[in-house]
Amino acid sequence: MAGLSRHRPALSPVRLLSVAALLLGLAACTPKPPEAPPAPKLTLSAARFDDLAGWQADRVAEALPALARSCGRLLRQPPDRALGPDGAMGRIADWTAPCRALDSVPAGDDAAARAYVETWFQPWLAADNGTAEGLFTGYYEAELHGSRTRQGPYQTPLLRRPDDLVMVDLGEFRPQLKGERIAGRVVNGQLKPFADRKAIEAGALANRDLELIWVDDAVDAFFLQIQGSGRVLLDDGGELRVGYDGQNGHPYVAIGRELVARGAIPKDQVSMQSIRAWLEANPAEVQAILDSNPSYVFFRVLEGEGPVGGQGIALTPGRSLAVDRSFIAYGVPLWLDAQDPLDPAARLRRLLVAQDTGGAIRGPVRGDVFWGHGPAAEQRAGLMKSRGRYWLLLPKTVSPSLS
Prior knowledge:
This protein is an alpha+beta fold. Helix content is 24%, strand content 28%. The chain contains ten helices and 16 strands. A hairpin with a 2-residue loop joins strand 13 (333-340) and strand 14 (343-356). Helix 2 packs across helix 3. The longest helix is centred in the first third of the chain and has 17 residues, at 13-29.
């Protein structure tokens, strides 16, 4: 009775019942607000190699050098260190024997490589709360033209990492935050946000001698930040290889999404090629579009073999995969089955190794294939927006409970 006006006569039990029924009926007729989607969660279900379509056709031996590089990093870690969420990918000790057995596989022998994988590993279908299909994209080692000095067309700098940029791996403080990172600068003993892209482009870091190299195209420099590494062909005839050396801590925002929101490009036509074409045709709006992504990446010169992925090793074209480290550990081999970016009617089925990460790679079933260097790699990476699935190949001593 608390909800009834005191100035109205008391209602009979029958009337009260009818009002209650009416209220319940109205409540039933009122549309419920949509339920929030469940938080992303990696779920794994056991499979067999017979379940992997194309397993017998792949040149599996091409992936073993990539796996060997990852094994080299894994075996330098403590044997009891857990891999993946809740140790779902086992401990380093589980990987010791499979990694050491790699030395006995003849180079280039696909049959021997397949036998090795089948002997030591068990496939597990990865899913997000039971949904196995996810998005797979591609990236490549970009090529730019630059100069060691600012002159002529070379007016866009690639910046070194500022010495006051602090990058924090939150997983070192809270296990449940493994794979999450923030960045900023310390002000009066407190970590504060670092300058965003717009501020940096406007000169927030000017006069600090951070210019690593000068390039001739601001859009090329922007896409280099997305790819994470590249080669700069210098005006003096030399070549410089540069790679990721930090990020300003602001979230990555896809400019393709901004262009779709503006009605500039239809959603189903978004690709790196279509984005570049639009930017070229609308030079007056380029800076505003680029600034819609507040994330900004800093670079260093790379020496020796490269480019280098997040695991700290050289990436292998067509065999290295960037993943979300909140769910997938570095060094895990995976079997990918997705649409081929060059032929939507065909399938891309191959063995890859998780060796990198990226700001846009989020979720349990999400990957970014590294395609290498050159025009063919750029085309394939730019077009890749494929739906597909992947299986984690885990040592047979590992029995994940993620289901």
